[in-house]
């Protein structure tokens, strides 16, 4: 039945354009030479009629090409990426009929050489790359090499603006930092001494989140940042550096946990007497952070839609690989939303 509809649609376009059905087929599917003016006329007519190729035919063509998406994420030991991958898996399952394969290349932390090594392993094996990149000139150059080789590249969760990547899917990190500062203002009033735990200054998003916090803080003369420590998104490191931070600065009244490593940081906070614990906010509703909210350590989080980020990244790669559609914009931004335990 689908094939009959497909034939009739092609036939209708051929009749209206005064050409053969074969010419329409070649013009719309790039299967042979067609005069440029004729091809343009056919494509315009197809667009006006709302023509869509037979999904079964498209699936068959896609399976012959065996499209492969390589996904490179710093997901080892970082529970946030579990939800991102869940979104990717859901999208990939919907496209199984097209023969789409998704291959994951996980890594831990932000080691540039390790990320470059994994990218080297992917060469010649993938048609599209989805990557949460380290913000380093060598990574940007490697991404540019992929693009120059005809590989479609989406940055997800974190961006690298100096590269030729086709688009970015993720949150507005600067706004996330602004929102976090405004949230602490609402919770604490006009005075706060803030300790900040971040993942890595090598990550563009983490730097932008800190910059957003500092920018919003200019409106609060009673706010000051006591210190900023990095934990590499590692729970053990996060515990140790947060403990040292709190020991060195017992006057801290607020903690902003800017990236992963929330559980480790909270374990250090829990060692303080209950009346001395700083008001703490964090990002992302991973299970361990939710548990810290239930225990009253984390007062609120900022949510950045990880499942949706993963699903959208796969969707964009699929549209390019199977339908030949480029993204209609460079940035697909998720809103930062404040979540309390009651509305998680």
Overall geometric form: elongated
Order of helices and strands: HHHHEHEHEHEEHEHEHEHEHEHEE
Strand percentage lies at 15-25%
Radius of gyration from CA coordinates: 25 Å
CATH topology of the largest domain: Rossmann fold
CATH class of the largest domain: Alpha Beta
What distance separates the N and C termini?
A: 46 Å
How do you describe this structure in short?
The chain has three domains: 2-53, 434 Repressor (Amino-terminal Domain); 65-170 and 307-333, Rossmann fold (3-Layer(aba) Sandwich); 173-303, Rossmann fold. It contains 13 helices and twelve strands.
Describe this structure in words.
This protein has helices at 2-17, 21-29, 36-49, 55-65, 80-94, 112-122, 137-148, 173-188, 204-217, 235-248, 262-270, 287-294, 306-323, and strands at residues 68-73, 101-106, 128-131, 152-156, 167-171, 192-198, 223-230, 254-257, 279-283, 298-303, 331-334, 337-339. With 344 residues, the chain is of the alpha/beta class. It folds into three domains: 2-53, 434 Repressor (Amino-terminal Domain), CATH 1.10.260.40; 65-170 and 307-333, Rossmann fold, CATH 3.40.50; 173-303, Rossmann fold (3-Layer(aba) Sandwich), CATH 3.40.50. The strands form two sheets. Strands 2-1-3-4-5-11 form a six-stranded parallel β-sheet, sandwiched between helices. A six-stranded mixed β-sheet has the order 7-6-8-9-10-12, with helices on both faces. Helix 2 crosses helix 3 (36-49) and helix 5 runs parallel beside helix 13. The longest helix has 18 residues, at 306-323. 43% of the residues are buried. Helix 12 (287-294) links the parallel strand 9 (279-283) and strand 10. It is found in: Cell envelope. Belongs to the bacterial solute-binding protein 2 family. One of its GO terms (molecular function) is carbohydrate binding. This is Transcriptional regulator, LacI family.
């Amino acid at each position: 039945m689908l094939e009959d509809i497909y034939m009739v649609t092609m036939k209708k376009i051929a009749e209206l354009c005064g050409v053969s059905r074969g010419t329409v087929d070649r013009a719309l599917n790039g299967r042979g030479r067609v005069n440029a003016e004729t091809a343009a006329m056919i494509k315009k007519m197809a667009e006006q009629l709302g023509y869509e190729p037979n999904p079964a035919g498209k699936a068959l063509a896609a399976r012959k090409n065996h499209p492969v998406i390589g996904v490179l994420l710093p997901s080892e030991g970082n529970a946030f990426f579990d939800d991102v991958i869940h979104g990717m898996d859901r999208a990939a399952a919907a496209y199984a009929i097209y023969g789409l394969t998704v291959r994951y290349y996980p890594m831990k932390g932000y080691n540039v050489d390790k990320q470059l090594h994994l990218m080297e392993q992917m060469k010649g094996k993938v048609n599209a790359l989805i990557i949460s990149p380290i913000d380093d000139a060598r990574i940007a150059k490697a991404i540019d090499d992929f693009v120059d080789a005809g590989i479609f590249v989406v940055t997800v969760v974190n961006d690298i603006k100096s590269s030729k990547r086709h688009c970015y899917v993720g949150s507005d990190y600067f706004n996330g930092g602004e929102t976090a500062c405004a949230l602490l203002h609402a919770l604490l009033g006009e005075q706060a001494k803030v300790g900040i735990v971040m993942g890595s200054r090598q990550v563009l998003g983490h730097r932008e989140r800190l910059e957003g916090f500092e920018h919003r803080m200019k409106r609060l003369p009673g706010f000051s940042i006591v210190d900023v420590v990095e934990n590499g998104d590692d729970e053990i490191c996060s515990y140790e550096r947060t403990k040292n931070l709190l020991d060195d600065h017992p006057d801290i009244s607020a903690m902003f946990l800017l990236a992963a490593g929330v559980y480790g940081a909270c374990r250090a906070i829990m060692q303080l007497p209950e009346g001395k614990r700083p008001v703490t906010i964090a990002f992302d509703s991973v299970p361990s952070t939710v548990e810290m909210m239930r225990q009253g350590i984390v007062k609120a989080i900022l949510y950045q839609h990880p499942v949706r980020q993963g699903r959208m990244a796969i969707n964009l790669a699929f549209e390019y690989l199977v339908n030949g559609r480029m993204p209609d914009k460079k940035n697909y931004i998720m809103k930062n939303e404040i979540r309390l335990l009651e509305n998680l």
